[in-house]
Amino acid sequence: MRTTMPTQREVNVHAKNDRSTFLSTLPATQSDRTAALAIVGISAILFALAVPFAGTPLIQVPAFIGSYQSALAVCDIITAVLLFSQFAVLRTRALLWLSSGYLFTATAALVHALSFPGLFAPNGLFGAGPQTTAWLYMIWHGGFPGFVLAYVWCKGVNGGVEISGSTRNAIIGSLLGVGAAVAALTWIVTAGHGLLPPLLKAGGGFTTVQVGVISFVWSLSFAALIGLWFKRPHAVIDVWLMAVMCAWLFDIALSGIFNSARYDLGFYAGRLYGLCAAIFVLAVLLIENVRLQAHTVGLVGRLREQSASDRDFYGKRLALYGAVVESSNDAIITESLDGIITGWNKAAEHLFGYSAAEAVGQSIDLMVPEDRRAEARGILNRISSNESIAQHETVRLRKDGRLLHVVLNVSPLRSDSGQIIGASKIAHDITEEKQSREKLRREIEERERIFETSRDLILVTDGFGNFIQVSPSVKDILGLSPEDMIGHSATDFIHPDDLEKTRAEMRAARRGQTKRSFEARYYHYDGHEVSLNWMGTWSEPVKRHFFIGRDLTEKQAAEAQFRQVQKMDSIGQLTGGVAHDFNNVLTVITGTIGILADAVADRPELAAITKLIDDAAERGAQLTKHLLAFARKQPLQPREIDVNALTLEAAKLLHPTLGEQITILPQLTEDAWPAMVDPGQLSTAILNLALNARDAMPDGGTLVLETRNIFLDDGYASMNPDVVAGNYVMIAVSDTGSGIPADLIERVFDPFFTTKEVGKGTGLGLSMVFGFVKQSGGHIKIYSEEGHGTSVKIYLPRSTGVQETEYESLQNVPITGGNERILVVEDDALVRQYVMTQVKSLGYTALEAANAAEALAIIDADKDVDLLFTDIIMPGNMNGRQLADEAARRRPDLKTLFTSGYTENAIVHHGRLDSGVLLLAKPYRKSELAKMLRTALAS
Fold first, then answer.
1. Which positions, given as ranges, span the membrane (predicted)?
2. Of 399, 411, 429, 405, nearest to 330 (Cα)?
3. Distance between CA atoms of residues 894 and 862, nearest Å
4. Which of 883, 912, 906 is nearest to 825 (CA)?
């Protein structure tokens, strides 16, 4: 609802022609000049008519002198008072001189009347002589023009220069000065009248001195008239002073020049002109005062009307303001500077729960919590210092005890005189708004946390496909930082073959088909392709695409492993079936070859052929035996065996087989667990592995035979689907040979696959070992690096029903972790992820790197890394040992723990690590990891 403010009615309090200003400053109008000129003209005509008869004697009337002089003195005194009153306001020197001139004229007129002979005494008062009144007349008529000339001299624009002191003191000084001057002159012309030359002859008429003096006085008066004429601009008083000076000249001429003696026509006429001269300015002043009074009365009436209008206007506005305050949705409160509530609107009642009767007169602490009272006092202190406070968020207390979040706008409250007497507060309730803001903040924070911690890749693009936001998980998935992608087009990172499919999905999303699911490949930082499954949607309000991409690497690796298992099973089924049927054929051949041999015993040439057939059948039987072993269908005779004893026996048999150029090093764990396995098949498996190692070391080398108790945990089992978590006995056969290329590792267990020359291997040795281990419920793992050698680890299930060994008891002690920072360096993404999970589960802060270059960058950037946990054999220009050496050069205090798929003994004896360097062989259980981490950190 709009509120219309009442409009204030303006009343014009000024007249069209404003004559309320002073005559000394009010510019003369043409009417003023015309009126003055008319009076001067009439006076001049009467003067001309009177001049011929000026010497005509008339009846002597001494009372005329008293009446005339009294009237003249009264007029001049009134004029002087009126001019002094104007001077008290305008403070101009010119006006002070003119006021003093009229005061001088009035005083001189009174003294002249008192000293006039025959009026109050035969010879006059004050000891007057025969020439006293004549000299007083000349002083009187010569003094006034002098004061007028002083007025002309000091007059300027707006009255002239102002005095610097008090007007009261100036007026008193003028009174005293004029009085002293008249007294001094009176004393001279009375007490010293004998010293002055006579102005009147004894028989009547004027002396020569009289003619000279009267001529000087008349000339002085004329000079005053001329000065007034040329002193422009003319004020009203200037125009009438010129009329006065004209009458003054006529007075002097008639009573001092053209007349012959006292009481003639000129004597009386001159006195009348003098009285007119005194009346002119007084009349104008009185007329102007009457006009001013009438104007003032009208002005007062208009002001009263204006006041009534203002009261009505402000009354309506005050009522409207009151209605606004009462209808405001915000609480409006006023309080004194000592914190006492003086005003309380309805919104305040609703907000704080107190009625106006309950709140007004109470301290503001009524609604201020205890811990906020110092703040409330501080606000009042700032208000008392003329400071306004805007948008101050704070907490206040309702009557029911509930806390309110409010925004305060506080302003000083002033009295009519402008003094600060209190404070005006506007309180806006933001409790719900703050709760909404807090809820929104939490939601934003939760989304940011999801965005920051998501293992999936989250991307936000604009409508043109340019990246706006990229989640930090891009570092793990694509090897890039968010800054590498933000601002760039998605086309720079998507595989060209998947680009059009991605664009089609984006277009479909913009048509409203939300939650689009599709696969697209992106390029990793190192150049390889990463397949991602995408969920995408389009937000029309913000014009953004939102994508969530899940890395399919693990899924594809698991699928590949599953396919490998299926492949091996399928091959096993096939080879098992072939071997079974082939065994049936061989059974017939070997069963009948003896009969044939007996039949041709007397024929050597046929006996030799029979022997060849028998040898071939034997080789076929061995072949089927290997095939059945791979197919896990060979007949096993498992029993509980001592793996250490079997391994030592195998080592003895291998010495003559391998030759003197190969050194055999048994490294056996003293308390190795017994295993439930076929000893003959195990011996054959070790022999096959040793022969393969020999072929990889044509120039000689070292063969390490090692046993160890191992626990394969759930984490390892999750990465190897064919493994069941549990206790195993590990038998490792490691060599220092040429190694196996990485692209052939996955095929080494396939039947008939071999890298040897034709005629130097059937390709069934490793496949037989693989089948035997799987049929025994075990697990086999091969580690190999070209140029470094190969390590094959056989994990056989531990025999059940035996007592817990000392090794087991050590492994079952409580696992201890820590809070140090550990840098994990591993080139295999799956293994790195597994290690990161284990390290973090022990309480450590884990950082990760895929190669030595990334690791060194982290070491340089993060000075708080406590331990480098690195694989030894890594692709690139720097292996794990070289990385450790470079890290030690940069950070001498950095601890190092190595890990490798090779066994510790194999690594050390291969010359790749110094003796005593800490190494954790893969795979390892969590307790072993925890123990080695603490050992390395304490080293």
1. 35-55, 61-83, 95-114, 134-154, 175-196, 208-230, 237-258, 270-287
2. 429
3. 12
4. 883
Order of strands, sheet of 341-344, starting from the edge strand that comes earlier in the sequence: 341-344, 331-336, 420-429, 403-414, 389-397
Q: With contact defined as beta carbons under 8 Å apart, do 436 and 448 qualify? A: no
Contact residues for 435 (Cβ-Cβ < 8 A; gap 6+): none
Residue in the structure block whose two tokens are 């002249």: 112
CB count, 10 Å around CB of 641?
19
Mean pLDDT of the chain: 77
Q: Which of 215, 320, 283, 262 is nearest to 23 (CA)?
A: 283
Between CA 760 and CA 696 the distance in angstroms is: 13
Q: Are 344 and 352 in contact (CB under 8 A)?
A: no
Number of Cα atoms under 13 Å in the Cβ half of residue 310: 8
Burial environment of residue 893 by CB neighbours within 10 A (0 to 12, 13 to 18, 19 or more): exposed
Structure tokens at 681: 């098949």
Residues β-bridged to residue 897 = 869
Q: Which residues pair with 784 in a beta bridge?
A: 790
Q: Return all residues near 81 (Cβ < 8 A) that are at least 6 apart.
A: none
CA distance 697 to 685: 19
- Give the C-alpha separation, 308 to 304, whole Å: 6
Q: Is 680 exposed, middle or buried (0-12, 13-18, 19+ CB in 10 A)?
A: exposed
CB-based burial of residue 656 (10 Å sphere; 0-12 exposed, 13-18 middle, 19+ buried)?
exposed
Q: Which of 465, 505, 506, 470 is nearest to 489 (CA)?
A: 465
Q: Are 361 and 339 in contact (CB under 8 A)?
A: no
**One-letter amino acid of 511:** R
The CA distance from 539 to 462, in Å, is: 10
Count Cβ atoms within 10 A of the Cβ of residue 938 and give its class: 0-12 exposed, 13-18 middle, 19 or more buried: exposed
Report the greatest alpha carbon distance in the chain.
222
Instruction: Decide: helix, strand or coil at residue 103.
Output: helix
Nearest Cα neighbor of 903 from 666, 633, 637 is: 666
Task: Please state whether beta strands 639-641 and 662-667 pair in parallel, antiparallel, or not at all (unpaired).
Answer: unpaired
Residue pair 502/535 in contact (Cβ under 8 Å)? The answer is no
Token pair listed for 564: 């490998």
Environment class of residue 196 by beta-carbon count within 10 Å: exposed (0-12), middle (13-18) or buried (19+)?
middle
Looking at the DSSP bridge assignments, the partners of residue 747 are: none
Q: How many CA atoms lie within 13 A of 16 on its CB side?
A: 0
Helix (H, G, I), strand (E, B) or coil at 264: strand
Provide the sign of the torsion angle of the four alpha carbons 810, 813, 819, 825, taken in this order: positive
CA atoms in the 13 A half-sphere facing the CB of 240: 27
The H or E element spanning position 777 is none
Q: What percent of the chain has pLDDT over 70?
A: 77
Q: What are phi and psi of 556, to 5 degrees?
A: -65, -35
21-73 per-position pLDDT tens digit:
566 667 778 887 888 788 888 878 887 887 787 777 777 777 677 677 777 87
The residue to which tokens 């490691």 are assigned:
734
Q: Residue 186 is encoded by which pair of tokens?
A: 């009176």
Beta bridge partners of 719: none
Closest CA to 620 of 750, 753, 762: 762
Look at phi and psi of residue 197 and say left if phi exceeds 0, alpha if psi is from -120 to 50, else beta.
beta
Count the Cβ atoms, other than its own, within 10 Å of residue 422: 22
Distance of CA 548 to the CA centre of its chain: 32
SS3 state of residue 76 = helix
pTM for this structure?
0.37
Q: Which three-class secondary structure state does DSSP give residue 521?
A: strand
Q: Where are the beta strands (DSSP E) in 229-361?
A: 331-336, 341-344
| Residues 6+ away with beta carbon under 8 Å from 6 | 313, 316, 317, 320
pLDDT tens-digit map of 458-498: 888 887 888 888 888 888 888 888 888 888 887 788 888 88
